[in-house]
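[[Per-residue structure]]
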Amino acid sequence: MQQISTADGYIFPLSIKQGLPYLKMRPYSPEEFLNTPHVIMTSDKEWNPTYADNDVDPYDPSFVGNIPNAFYLLPHDKYDLFGEYTAHSASNLDANIVLI
């Protein structure tokens, strides 16, 4: 289960829809406002929405220079560049499976 855990020990479960997290909320009642804990979930610092921005140029020489020489072996050397498994042999194939 995806969740937000606060420093105070509160846990808020998150819903995931099409890869995006959602925190289900509703307006509180006046009674809930008076009788339930208030949890601060934001920072008191000014928000900078560009903080994590990154624009990669695949034609930049420094980008190409950072590709490992054997990148095609990552993360597993038993697959080729097309994702095909290449380490099979007749001894580890099930006789009932037909390879196409």
In short: The beta strands are 3-5, 11-13, 15-17, 20-22.
